[in-house]
Every structure is written in structure tokens, then in C-alpha cells.
Amino acid sequence: MNLPWYGKIFLPILALFLYAATVVADDTYDIIVIKSRQELDVVRGDQIIKQYRIAYGKGGNGPKRVQGDSKTPVGVYRIINFRNNSNFHYFMQLDYPNLLDAWYGYKNNIITAMEFKEIANAYKSRQAPPQDTRLGGNIGIHGLGEATTERLKIHEVFNWTNGCIALTNDQINDLKQYVSIGTKVVIRE
Description:
The chain is α+β, with helices and mostly antiparallel strands. It has a single domain (about 5-189), classed as Beta Barrel (L,D-transpeptidase catalytic domain-like). It contains 5 helices and 8 strands; from the N terminus they run H-E-E-E-E-E-H-H-E-H-E-H-E. Strands 3-2-1-8-4-5-6-7 form an 8-stranded mixed sheet, with helices on one face. Helix 2 runs antiparallel to helix 3 (about 115-125). The protein starts with a helix and ends with a strand.
């Protein structure tokens, strides 16, 4: 296979990332999001422990590629932060953009080599990646905020977020018991 110079450097990193993303500890919970079913599952191994109905990005199907596309990313992520004082009741931040998102962005001239390196270094040290690149940021799982009748109706009928995964406030409060820093979140179409 004849790869360009950057492919020879980054392909082994991507392979390691994919391998690491598949390793699962038996005593932890993972989150599986299936956008087409509007479903968030809490799983341990092969067993579904809890299921929630979600809303996701109003940008439609497909992976998130650039800031402002209002799409929910597709891939393997980790919970890296919690915010109690969120406008959306409670916020569980994902490590978006991950290494694969960054690779796509670099390969397609959306981000620079320096931005790719910053994202890779954040991934390596399990820190928050830069949130201000053209790939976007501040993607996570959150509640509704003020749970008015109108908001609850919108949540039931529409995918309304700017790329995040939304639950009701009661659901996000319940989900907290299964999630910690480092919890794996797999988002599928």
C-alpha cells in the first residue's frame, strides 16, 4: 500500500486507537447510542441494564464533520467532564473531537497539523481536546434544562440539539449512577 507521509505516521496511531476502544472492563458500564432508534442503552458486557429515549442533532444522519453542522458525532468517545450548572440541567462532556475525527479533519484540510497534534496529545493524556477548532466541540449528553410542557413535547417529537444527545432531566439524573469519568460512549447511526 502506497501511503502519503502523513498516512505512514498516523495510521499506526489510528490502529492503536481502534484497538483500545474495543477493550471493555467487566465491572464497568458502557453507553451505546443508536441514533436511528433514538435510543441510549447502558450496558455491562452484553447485557442492557437501562434504556432511554433520546433526541440528537437536528443536522440529521451522518457523522459530525465541522462546527455548526448540528450533527451528532458517530464513533467511540469517553466521558471527560461533568457540569452541574449547565443550561441543560446536567452535562456529561464527551472527548469530541477524538483521534479519528481529527484524522478526518486533517486529511480533508479542515484542521491544521498543529491542531491534529493538540487533539492527539489530549487523547493520549485523556484530557479534553481543543474545543475551538473548525471540527467543533462541547458535545455531550445532557438534560432539557427548564422542563416546560413545550420543551417536553419538542423533545418527544424532534431531534432538536446542535449535536449533543438529550434526555429528560429525570433520565439524566438516573443515568448519573452508571457514568464516571472515562465511561465509554459508542455512538452509532
